[in-house]
Amino acid sequence: METRAPFVIVGAFILVAIGAVFGFVYWLHNTGGLGARTSYHLQFNGSVPGLLVGASVLFNGIRVGEVTSLSLAPDSPRRVNAVIAVLPDTPVRSDTKVGLDFQGITGVPVVALEGGSELTASGPIPTLIAEPGAGQSMTQAARDALRRVDAVLSENAEPLQNTIANLKTFSDGLARNTGKLDGIVSGLERMTGGGAANAPKVIYDLDVPQSFALAKKPIKGQLVIPEPTGVLMFDTQRILFVPPGGDHPEFANFQWSDSLPKLLQTKLIQSFENYDVGHAPLRAADGLPADYQLLIDIRGFQVTTESGPVAEIGLSAKILDKNGRVIAARLFQDKKKLESLDPQSAVNAFSAVFGAIAGDLIGWTVAALP
User: Fold this and answer.
1) Which distant-in-sequence residues (6+ apart) come within 8 Å of 92 by Cβ?
2) CB 314 within 8 A of CB 260
């Protein structure tokens, strides 16, 4: 017995200590810990489902205290009285709004306070009255909405039945006159020019120069040509006309082989390859280190129709070294009159203009590279 007695005492002491710890944690959680508290009376004109003593009190979303008392008003069966204890520096004023908030997946209710417009206290705070429907949860709001919908449907049951019957009569009439409706739709398509399949696009390509009059001089260093830049209207595969908005039905199915920036990048690289394939420039996307960059900005690529159709191309070129310094810059512009306003004549004119500009651009670039 003497041997077991110490174990019994030790075990009892441990159980008492554990109980004391749990009791302290429970008290600390439900009373908000040590420190002064200021109490306020609240009044709810309706049910407060799930609200318990010890529930949190939030002011503008921040926990400031807890509910210390809940009771039913003896003189009003709908009213619920509550007492809350909050931190003394909580800015509760006479115009503070009171409500319930439901947090988490399970919807645990807490008292939610929201600051009003008063900046300082003007005297003792009276009983704060909660807003109407403050204790209404989302579930209750959904039930009330469904009740109102059900009431509306019940009051308008006969008109709804008549509407459904009229729709059935109308659909039966459509079914009996399907053939006539098809004829009406076909006539509308013919009248508006619809119904026929769109003609396929005809794709045209830009020719590049094959030979050059300038003296053959190798391209120095690794040159890169990024995709040319330009205003948004040049990002297209159609031929542009100046002034815009004219009627050019013969170009309705015209389409370049790529958008103008990508087309110019490809054709400039091909032109350099025809000049010196062993030292031709690369695309910037190829990922290789570059000694120089040839930056192209599109200033014009259109057919001007003011004084006869003319194909015009304008480019701005800059050569940058590996440090981003501009070592040379120049504008290139040329134009050629179309034999007639049709797609093939336009392509021929653009190819001639591009060939002249590409030759000048290559000669200038080779001479400008140090």
Assistant:
1) 38, 40, 59, 86, 113, 125, 128
2) no
What count of residues does the chain have? 370
Closest residue by Cα to residue 364 from 321, 317, 315, 326: 317
| Full-model pTM | 0.49
Environment class of residue 319 by beta-carbon count within 10 Å: exposed (0-12), middle (13-18) or buried (19+)? Answer: buried
Say if residue 130 is in the same domain as residue 219. no
Contacts of 329 (CB under 8 A, 6+ apart): 316, 317, 318, 319
> Which range of residues forms the domain containing residue 343?
202-368
d(CA 12, CA 5): 11
Neighbours of 10 (CB within 10 A): 10
pLDDT, tens digit, 9 for 90 and up, residues 221-266: 899 999 999 999 999 999 999 888 777 888 989 999 999 999 999 9
- Answer yes or no: do 342 and 214 share one domain: yes
